[in-house]
Structure formats: C-alpha cells, structure tokens
Amino acid sequence: xxxxxxxxxxxxxxxxxxxxxxxxxxxxxxxxxxxxxxxxxxxxxxxxxxxxxxxxxxxxxxxxxxxxxxxxxxxxxxxxxxxxxxxxxxxxxxxxxxxxxxxxxxxxxxxxxxxxxxxxxxxxxxxxxxxxxxxxxxxxxxxxxxxxxxxxxxxxxxxxxxxxxxxxxxxxxxxxxxxxxxxxxxxxxxxxxxxxxxxxxxxxxxxxxxxxxxxxxxxxxxxxxxxxxxxxxxxxxxxxxxxxxxxx
Length: 248
What we know:
By secondary structure, the chain is an alpha+beta fold. Helices cover 41% and strands 18% of the residues. The chain has eight helices and ten strands.
C-alpha cells in the first residue's frame, strides 16, 4: 500500500497524497466548487478530477516537477519558464469565468488592514512596511479583467523538461489582474521574470508586477504566521519586503 504523504495541512484545509492521487479536504465546499469549475474551462493542462465526495476532492497527480519552491533557486530551464509564460498568456487571453473576482476596493481595504496589523504587532520594521506600502500603490489601479489563476505559486506549475504538464490548485481562479498572476509566480524569483516574459509576450507592466510582489507579501504575512508558516524563512515574503529597501 502507498504511504500517505501530508502535502499541506492547516486549520482551513489539508492535502494528502496517496500514490498518484491527491486528496484535498476542505471544510468550505465553495473552494472545491470553484476549482472544479475553473479546471473545466481553463485552456491549459490541469489535473484530472477522479471523484468528489464533499468535503474531499480527489485529483490525479500531474507528471513532471514543479517549477521550484519559494526560498530556493529554481532548477527549471529558461525554456521551461518561457513555456510557463506562454501557458499563462493562453489562460489570460481565454474568455472570462462566469463568476465575479475581487474588486479594487477590496484589495485596497485588505492591504490597509494588513499593514496596520503588521505595524501594530511589530513583526517588521515600520520603515519596511511603509516603503512596501508605497510601492504597492502602483497595483491599485483599474485593470482590464483577465482569466487569472489567482494563486499561481511556483509550486503550482509543473513542467517536464521544457513543457508545461499541468497547473494545480484553482480554487482562487476568477476574473482579475493579469499582472497579479505573473507576480505571484515570480515572487522570490525575480531573476526569472525575463524568462517568463519571453514566453508570455507583450503588454506587461513591470512596475505593476513589482508592486504586486510588495502587496502580496504584505497581505499574506499575517495568514502565514497564524497558520504555522514562516514568512521570515530565507527567500520568502519578509526577504521580498526587505529587498525593496535596497531600491531607495
């Protein structure tokens, strides 16, 4: 019998791997609903859905390896990153999902609330938080909605050689800012942005991508801390925020 591997587990959800099957356990059925709907219409490779019995969703493993992990250099080739960029462009050019995404006012309110929490709890120097809040402002502008993945972490894109074999974890997919997806995939891997954009093509605003690096790191930090993760690990969110001080 295959061993059970705990891929990720926290108070909101858990993902287990048994052989070539991933079991996603989530107390909120809307997350699985969104994931199933998004994978059904996404124009790029996604995992096969094997069965669903709430609160469990079973999906097949995709071949290949993740582009990398946060906090470590990516071993994937430049061509693999370019292939990921081309796949993301295909997604962003697809018809919008028929459900709403987050609005600009929601993003701005969350940013302000999380910055206030970070300052009140002293988890980072105030100058670092204020500097990144200034940089994040560039992301707070109207955007033309695109079909975005919404949580395009580097561990969610799988490649085999120079080919994208699958993109996983679609529960946050919705209409949104295309630059957000590009920023999340390259968070902590800024040196691979040029490779990614080689495949993605024109129409990219690098200032907005940099703004999303800061914004994402600011708003994610409290959740990570409260759910047992460490945003202060080497190469992770706090390092991303500190690195912006070098731009002064």
